[in-house]
Write a structure and sequence with these properties.
binds flavin mononucleotide, 3 domains, 4-stranded parallel sheet, alpha/beta, de novo design (two linked rop proteins), 5-stranded mixed sheet, binds iron/sulfur cluster
Length: 421
């Protein structure tokens, strides 16, 4: 089987259990240790952004699980505004995600699975609930119970400690680690939390094995990956690609560029900008993107049209990201707001002296100083923009707003509290 893998048989409505079994077959019964070894051989890395090896995470939960019964959490919160792949999996392929969660519960010996879904995705919650109803049980040893929880939307509420904190206390804000959630997570029990796409891959590896998974993609990041492609392409949407395939072939699959593109954003609002000429011909894997200082993150790629104003786009997103911070750590409460304010001043042509030096310095200062990676991601997004769009930023600093500032935004900022400040 080449591609599609995850998206095989996908349609607009949720795939029924019968159809799911027709398309993929049933989950085979495999010994726990064998399944963990298979996942390790597969080299599957998390698809929620950090690309952490799944088998390493599960090994830690298995070790901690000798003392207390573990819990599995399915992270379907998807706070990144330019991503829709997790929502699509939950809404259209809930059985694939549940199969993956059941396999992981079996490996770590969990008796409980919590499926955390963004409260805005009512269809996702309903699809998972109906899928559970259809199945009766998950069909794995120990018959783990399953809870479906709606998590308040927000960029940081999908961070892993925020999800756990919400499950434990109803507060969707991140908390300081350690202890790691693999040691103490839900109810202070060892917790295996994974992104929904990661779990969907597990469901297929359980059926077809590690060698099959590795038939696609480079050695260090094998398999297929879901990408949400947005911006100036003719057919934006979710595409399943072989990891390491060319950006050009993804754009071809999206029916080509709708207009000339100035730059690409890789990895979403915690990601990096790359000039369109440098991005040409790049392969879509973290290894291939690293010379461009970019990663795929949670699989978001945005083609920014040359007709858009990058300064207004970046200033608006930076302001939104500052608002999205939980405001409980210094870097968010002070640093991100200062960066956003300075960018807004630059955009409006009211830049203070050495504004760019200040922004770069603050971006450095906020990095690695918060309880979660939110300031780091925002700093990456902003500093890469200052590099790629230096001419446009200089122009705005001198002359203020441009004609393109008025155009419809390319980068969406849901529930935005303030426009460009
Ligand atoms: C600010 C922030 C927001 C995050 N939001 C999400 C999210 O919406 N969904 C998600 O799966 N992971 C998100 N993550 C990553 C999670 O913390 C965690 O690493 C991931 O869910 C683990 O799953 P994986 O190993 O399968 O990738 C976020 C991380 C940060 C720092
Ligand atoms: S770094 Fe920001 S978003 Fe993360 S916990 Fe602290 S205040 Fe909240």
């Amino acid at each position: 089987m080449s591609l599609p893998r995850l998206l095989l048989g996908v349609a607009a409505e949720p795939m029924s259990l019968d159809r799911h079994l027709d398309v993929h077959g049933g989950l085979p019964r495999v010994r726990r240790q064998d399944m963990l070894a298979e996942l390790e051989r597969s080299g599957l890395r998390g698809r929620g952004g950090a690309s952490f090896p799944l088998a390493t995470k599960l090994g830690a939960v298995v070790a901690a699980g000798r003392r207390r019964r573990p819990v599995v959490v399915v992270n379907g919160t998807e706070g990144e505004p330019m991503s829709v792949k997790d929502r699509m999996l939950l809404e259209c392929l809930p059985h694939l995600v549940l199969d993956g969660a059941a396999c992981v519960a079996d490996i770590v010996g969990a008796d409980e699975i919590v499926v955390a879904v963004d409260e805005a995705s009512r269809q996702g919650t309903e699809a998972v609930r109906s899928a559970l109803h259809e199945r009766g049980d998950l069909g794995v040893r120990g018959g783990p119970s399953v809870r479906v929880l709606s998590v308040p939307g927000g960029y940081v509420s999908g961070q892993e400690t925020a999800v756990i904190n919400f499950i434990n206390t109803g507060d969707p804000r991140p908390v300081m680690q350690p202890p790691r959630i693999t040691d103490r997570g839900v109810g202070r029990r060892p917790t295996a939390l994974s992104n929904v796409e990661t779990l969907a891959h597990v469901a297929l590896i359980a059926r077809h094995g590690a060698d099959w998974f590795r038939e696609l993609g480079p050695r260090e990041s094998p398999g297929s990956v879901l990408v949400t492609l947005g911006g100036g392409v003719r057919a934006p949407g979710v595409y399943e690609i072989e990891t390491g395939s060319h950006l050009g072939s993804l754009i071809d699959a999206a029916e080509g560029l709708a207009e000339p593109v100035r730059a690409f954003l890789f990895g979403g609002y915690a990601g990096n900008w790359v000039d369109a000429t440098r991005a040409r011909g790049v392969r879509l894997s973290n290894g291939a993107l690293s010379p461009l200082r970019a990663t795929l993150g949670a699989g978001v790629i945005v083609a920014l049209p040359a007709s858009a104003c990058p300064v207004a786009e970046v200033a608006r997103v930076a302001s939104w990201m500052a608002d999205e911070g939980a405001g409980q750590c210094g870097p968010c409460a002070n640093g991100l707001n200062a960066i956003a304010d300075a960018l807004a001043e630059v955009c409006a042509g009211a830049a203070r002296r050495d504004a760019f030096g200040d922004i770069r310095r603050w971006a450095e200062l906020v990095t690695a100083r918060g309880a979660c990676g939110h300031p780091d991601g925002t700093a990456r997004f902003v500093t890469s923009a200052l590099g790629v769009f230096s001419a446009e930023f200089d122009d705005h600093a001198r002359h203020g707003l441009c004609d393109a500032c008025e155009r419809r935004p390319v980068l969406s900022c849901p529930r935005q509290r303030s426009a460009v400040r």
